[in-house]
Design brief:
The chain is 77% helix and 0% strand. The protein is mostly helical. The radius of gyration is 15 Å and the shape is globular.
């Protein structure tokens, strides 16, 4: 782990804090600063790169840039599918599925979007190594997404 990885990690933490405060612009800036530093090391911190992409996608959607969000998410989903099997990233995989459903609901093109979202949530429940009731971050993140979806 070198300086670019650490920088990307810290920028990701800034983006997470920005999302908690609904500061979508700051979340985008922080992820844009971080993502280039991890393009060559997507396995850093069990796929932190993909967390950064998901954070940026969420912020883009909240600012109404749904098409940009989809253009960022789709290649990440393809890349992730190739990497995830070899890394055993169960929780990361379900996060990708949840956000794919989240974006799809905002796109309002696929009547199965809500089912996609819920399938991702159920996959996260199944992938939880601690047991879903002992998870702290994932249930709160999903509830935040649900809250945003109720607002549309």
């Amino acid at each position: 782990m070198g300086a670019p990885d650490v920088y990307a990690f810290i920028q990701g933490l800034i983006a997470e804090a920005a999302l908690l405060n609904s500061d979508w612009d700051l979340a985008i800036r922080a992820t844009e600063d971080a993502i280039p530093h991890l393009r060559g090391n997507r396995s850093f911190r069990d796929g932190w790169y993909y967390n950064l992409v998901l954070m940026k996608v969420r912020a883009l959607v909240q600012l109404g840039h749904i098409e940009k969000a989809r253009l960022l998410l789709d290649p990440a989903l393809e890349d992730f599918d190739q990497e995830a099997d070899s890394n055993g990233w169960g929780m990361r995989a379900c996060s990708m599925q949840v956000v794919d459903g989240y974006v799809s609901i905002h796109e309002r093109r696929d009547p199965r979007s809500e089912a996609m979202f819920e399938a991702g949530v159920n996959a996260c429940r199944s992938a939880s190594e601690k047991g879903w009731d002992n998870e702290k971050v994932m249930p709160r993140w999903i509830e935040a997404l649900r809250s945003e979806l109720r607002a549309i």
